[in-house]
Model the fold of this input.
Amino acid sequence: MIDMWKKKKMNPFGILYSWFLAKVADKLEVLPGSEFRVAFEEAMTYGAKVILGDRPVQITLRRTWGKMTLWHKIKFLYYMLFQAIFLPSPEDLNKMLKEMDDVDMLTLVIQEMSKAFPTLMETLLHERDLYMSSTLLKVASEHNSVVAVVGRGHLTGIKKHWKQPVEVKDLLEIPAAKSGISAMKILKSLGVAVTGVAIISGIYLAGKR
Done:
């Protein structure tokens, strides 16, 4: 996480979000993105042309982080750290997925987080539905046979926006940095959050013993 921050490969949201998803995937003993790996391998077997139809992840993460208020950014740091430490059991996570059979793991995580951070649904789900629907329509108009592999949680949105006008340019814009938001403030908050989690985690583990 520190290495990604130093090399400016991801913003704080991207780093913590990726780490949190990895923790959930580990709990469920699944490999994130495995359906896309299988699809790619099959496409290569048939000599098909592979097109990546989702919006570039860096743009999605930067738009998500940019649309958050300073308070939500600080709150998000605490939220992700505590949620990662106190994740539900694998049984409870699988039960949640079965109860919401129209979503995948990623969509479930987004829906849960959006209860505290409403803008997440817009940038992580709805905007990507628009982008993917537009991309798929363009590809379908240029080829006779197309197979699209998408996360289950995006199916409804893609169908909803199918053949609807989409301003792709707007979906690729990066929000301008808001005045008063300092990276140092975020880092200081992260330091406090890590310290708090370490203390609480120690108390929790001691209590279990």
Notes: Residues 55 and 194 are 31 Å apart (CA to CA). Residues 2-208 form one domain. The two ends are 30 Å apart (CA to CA).
